[in-house]
Design a protein that fits this description.
The structure is a homodimer. By secondary structure, the first copy, chain A, is an alpha+beta fold. Chain A is built from nine helices and twelve strands. The interface between A and B is large, with 65 and 65 residues.
């Protein structure tokens, strides 16, 4: 878990209250800001993704970070580093994809430099005007846990792509062209009268649940049968693991007061925030059994880019 | 000039009024934003820079972008991609350097991922509150051209470092640990009663002059004898080229109304904004001759990371 160790060192060195969240809420400026990178052969391979899809996804993952905060995605900058052999069509297609994903979010700058591998770093800025901003430490006992859509499809799609397959398209598309949950986020942030917790599932559904549980010191209790997923993922033996630990679905998970639910739509209630008995964590209720996992148990299972 | 061609393609694809400037002014949010990247073996080599210096410079070049706009540097995010063999001390030292450069500017987020080479992308956000924001298209005939400090030292320092030398220290330090001109920028932005043009010299002193000349459709006329530089650079035969085309000094060049000058300090007047005869460009007055260069002539001379 080198990445975890590195992050702890960064936190200790900077001694900042912000480091650790994907999005930083800059209250004095009324904005949130996030930055995320995609590195060739770490986060994607050109063997299965087109430049258009790459531009699209690079933008979408950053818009998703803003959505997770509840802010309104407003502007983006893109820093692109490209090997010498890349031609002008790559740049054109990449930005066509970026533009399609950005829609009303304006791409306002960045830079372009040389490199050995393709490296993309996108920053996104969101406006907090007239919105209540989320925090992973806001979950409260009794709140309902809701999600925006299906889990596990992206990781299933990646497995197919790495196997040279292009179908089922639902799964492959979920990985190559995910959609940030702007509508879900906007409804909550504009209508919430009290604080709520929200995260995207970029690093996995269980990661989002356990991060909220840990930061809020609660138990996130979910019913497995209520979690939405595409039936196609059942072609994989480990389809339950894909749902929980797959990541990159860019769905939103939120813990909100039940009162809010009558004012929003397009969500699925999957569980409830409970008081911890001894320790915070995630409780999964299956039809025939229960499973309780602590933050550490979950983090140890999660994919780590620095893993040996 | 592949980078230039790529930028034109990006502009055409996005059809945005923002692309092209280093800093985007987001008027509705009252902020400016910039993003700049440093790539191992393109922008720096570990043979001559320490992790501390690298962290320091990565932050400083982005604060410089904000300074060039006249905004107050407020927050930073850092995206760091590191090869597997990098150890925890690298991360610690890098962030110690970043923190030293940031001073009152808070580092609020970013991410850390794996990669083959070291890749650093920093985003900076500045507040425009109570400040007049610059634009490279704001230069007006009759304005004075002022600079914040010495030109050419950084490029001279790089030449020394690539030769395995560590002295003269003035030059080597100018390259490894440049200083963003926060004070110069603040004075102008807080005191200017009328519009002004300002750029940093990240891509070279002549680049800044020619970009302003081109965007404002004026002639930037400077007296060579008035340009500040460290005498040490004369150890190089091409010291005048280092001054003009070297880059990475992160000084500021501004075209401001003469009235403003009584309210600020720490600047050097090097010339005046003139009306173009036929075409905009940069005029250099030497003691014994004059030289006029168009935007295209200057851009063709400038270093390009994609050059073959």
């Amino acid at each position: 878990m080198k990445e975890k160790e590195f992050l702890q060192t960064i936190k200790n060195t900077l001694n900042s209250k912000y480091i650790g969240d994907d999005c930083a809420y800059l209250k004095d400026l009324g904005v949130v800001i996030s930055q995320d990178s995609l590195v060739e052969d770490v986060h994607f391979k050109l063997s299965y993704t087109t430049p258009f899809q790459l531009g699209y996804k690079s933008v979408m993952v950053n818009i998703s970070d803003i959505c997770a905060s509840g802010a309104k995605p407003a502007y983006l900058t893109i820093s692109l580093s490209l090997p010498k052999n890349i031609d002008i069509n790559f740049v054109k297609d990449f930005y066509e994809g970026a533009k399609m994903a950005a829609q009303n979010v304006e791409i306002v700058g960045g830079d372009i430099t040389g490199s050995e591998k393709i490296y993309i770093s996108v920053s996104a800025i969101g406006s907090t005007k007239n919105r209540r901003i989320s925090s992973r430490s806001n979950a409260k006992i009794g709140q309902k846990i809701i999600v925006s859509g299906s889990h596990g499809s992206s990781a299933a799609g990646l497995k197919l792509l790495l196997d040279g397959k292009k179908e089922p398209q639902t799964l492959v598309n979920a990985h190559l062209m995910p959609k940030a949950q702007i509508c879900f986020s906007t409804q909550i942030a504009e209508n919430a009268k009290t604080n709520y917790a929200m995260m995207d599932t970029s690093d996995g559904f269980m990661d989002a649940l356990s991060q909220i549980a840990n930061a809020s010191n609660v138990v996130m209790s979910v019913d497995f049968d209520k979690i939405p997923y595409d039936q196609e993922i059942k072609i994989f033996d480990n389809w339950q693991d894909l749902i929980f630990y797959g990541g990159e679905d860019y769905q939103l998970v939120a813990a909100v007061d039940e009162n809010l639910l009558k004012n929003i739509h397009g969500y699925t209630i999957i569980g409830e925030v409970l008081k911890p008995k001894n320790i915070s964590g995630v409780n999964i209720n299956y039809s025939d059994k229960k499973e309780f996992l602590t933050f550490e148990q979950i983090e140890n299972k999660l994919y780590n880019h620095f893993k040996e």
